[in-house]
Amino acid sequence: MEESTASGFLATFHQIMMFGSAAAVVIAVLIYIIHNVRVSSLNDYKKKYDFIRENEIKSYKYAFIVLAIGVVFIINTYGSGTLEFDAIWFSVRAFIAIAGGTLVGYIGSLILQYYYPTKLDKKLKKWRYMPRVNSETGNKMRLLREDEEDVHLDEGMRAEEEVFSMDYDVWIDEVTGTTKVEKYEGRLEALQCNNCGFFTMKVVREEIIQQATDTSEGELVKHYECQYCGSIRATQFHIAKEENYEAFRPEKMEFKKNAMVNLVKVDIHSNMGEKKSYDFQNVEQAQKFLEEFDIEKTQ
Ligand SMILES: [Zn+2]
């Protein structure tokens, strides 16, 4: 009697796992398809761009998670035709299933974190630079060069471009003179100004009120100034206790110049969407590298 209850449970369990794994694959594929249908349903290239930037990695992440759950289910059906219920076998298989699912999820996260961003960047560039069409006249529009676009931007926009926090693209219908201005996030971060609303708040000065030691936190004040309207703001930050504080004292550093620099990071973005990152231990190395850098040689 007990025997048959156990094998009854096993049969039901295997059915659920079988159904679950099929459902997971279907859901993962659906997530992928729905995302891409939503992208292609947007006619405006800028809207496509924003939607992809906002949602693509998120959607694919969900698809991988569902797929990983599907793998857990499918491994749990291994040997389902021949098995009598055996608690140890059952638990070992469940453990391997969870490990397999975790592995798939992990591979998915590696892909999305390291491989996919380059591909995404290319895709975004494609939509950003795809020639716009004036919806009223049907004329093809032309993207203005940086030096041509200024007259079409207001002062705040220009200030945002000046500090690299925002990037504006101006498209012009050269027949009618109609322009279309599109806003993109820039290369450097700036905060939004409470006064004028533009993203032009930059750190102009940092002041250490109290040095961090190995026993107490320090205090740092960052002074911000809006590069457009000139309003100022100061924010206080804690500096974490520094256990290896000794090592950061300038007199112990190897280089006298820029002695407090611990790491220099250089990111180079090519117009093909390729991104390369380089780390250096000091400014001199980075400068030397940049003098000799040739994008062609890195391909
Ligand atoms: Zn301002």
Distance from N terminus to C terminus (CA atoms, Å) equals: 69 Å
- Principal-axis shape equals extended
Radius of gyration: 28 Å
One letter per element, helices H and strands E, the order comes to HHHEHHEEEEEEEHH
Each distinct ligand: zinc ion
- The average pLDDT score comes to 85
Describe this structure in words.
Helices cover 47% and strands 18% of the residues. Mean pLDDT is 85; it is low at 245-256. The chain has 299 residues and is of the alpha+beta class. Strands 1-2-3 form a three-stranded antiparallel beta sheet, covered by helices on one side. Strands 4-5-6 form a three-stranded antiparallel beta sheet, with no helix packed on it. The protein has helices at 2-41, 45-75, 87-129, 146-149, 155-162, 283-292, 295-298; strands at residues 142-143, 166-172, 179-185, 201-210, 218-226, 232-239, 264-269, 275-280. The protein contains seven helices and eight strands, in the order H-H-H-E-H-H-E-E-E-E-E-E-E-H-H. The chain folds into four domains: 2-129, no CATH class; 142-185, no CATH class; 190-248, no CATH class; 250-299, no CATH class. Residues 193, 195-196, 198, 200, 226, 228-229, 231 line the site of zinc ion.
